[in-house]
Design goal:
Blueprint: E1 4-7, E2 10-12, E3 18-24, E4 33-39, E5 46-51, E6 57-59, E7 67-72, E8 77-82, E9 91-99, E10 101-104, E11 108-112
Parallel strand pairs: 2-11
Antiparallel strand pairs: 1-3, 3-8, 4-5, 4-9, 5-6, 7-8, 9-10, 9-11
Length: 114
């Protein structure tokens, strides 16, 4: 059974940095479209950043210039580098892997608080 597992969440102060990781246990990660989504309290899940198999990236306007998505196909791993974190970045962050069908992780909580 394919698993998608996020890690790296936690408590961070405003202005701080955090890096999320997502590992994929299936095959063909290199040809997958991958992305990070988040669900803030009281809101629907929304796209944060995504990367195509060719490396093209898309970011939500709210994170442009602060977050960077990257992937290591040799390790079947997706990353999200988050800089200059704000209170409003507090959310559960989910990893998404699409190879024909979609696979989701269970999420990792990021809390930005002083």
């Amino acid at each position: 059974q394919v698993q998608v597992v996020e890690s790296g969440g936690g408590l961070v102060q405003p202005g701080g940095t955090l890096t999320l990781s997502c590992t994929y246990s299936g095959s063909d990660f290199a040809i997958a479209s991958v992305g990070w989504y988040r669900q803030r309290p009281g809101r629907e899940r929304a796209l944060v950043a995504q990367m195509s198999s060719s490396g093209r990236t898309t970011y939500a306007d709210s994170v442009k210039g602060r977050f960077t998505v990257s992937r290591d196909n040799a390790k079947d791993t997706l990353y999200l580098q988050m800089n200059s974190l704000k209170f409003e970045d507090t959310a559960v962050y989910y990893c998404n892997v699409r190879i024909g069908r979609e696979y989701w992780g269970k999420g990792t909580l990021v809390t930005v608080s002083s």
